[in-house]
Specification:
The protein has 83 residues and is an all-alpha fold. The protein has one domain. It has three helices and no strands. α2 packs across α3. The chain is globular and about 35 Å long. 30% of the residues are buried. Its main location: membrane. Belongs to the UPF0410 family. It is a multi-pass membrane protein.
Length: 83
């Protein structure tokens, strides 16, 4: 998949992560979407390292790792902003 596909994939993963982890985020919806995209990249990269999907295909494994990556980054961002 190209970079544009991964951005769209990350956008979807970020929206799902926000749906799973509702609440007010410091920075608003744009920052939350950007964190979702970054989380999808990180999750996809880490997932490809452990064999759960790959950065080059669209599979259930890569989608799950993208959502988990977005959740981790969103949770970390919330913790940093509270401190």
């Amino acid at each position: 998949m190209g970079i544009l596909s991964w951005i769209l994939f990350g956008l979807i993963a970020g929206v799902i992560a926000k749906w799973i982890m509702p609440g007010k985020d410091p920075g608003g919806i744009i920052v939350t979407i950007l964190i979702g995209i970054a989380g999808a990249f990180v999750g996809g990269w880490l997932g490809s390292m452990v064999g759960m999907g790959s950065m080059g295909d669209f599979s259930l494994g890569s989608f799950i790792t993208a959502i988990v990556g977005a959740l981790v980054l969103l949770g970390g961002y919330r913790m940093l902003k509270k401190a």
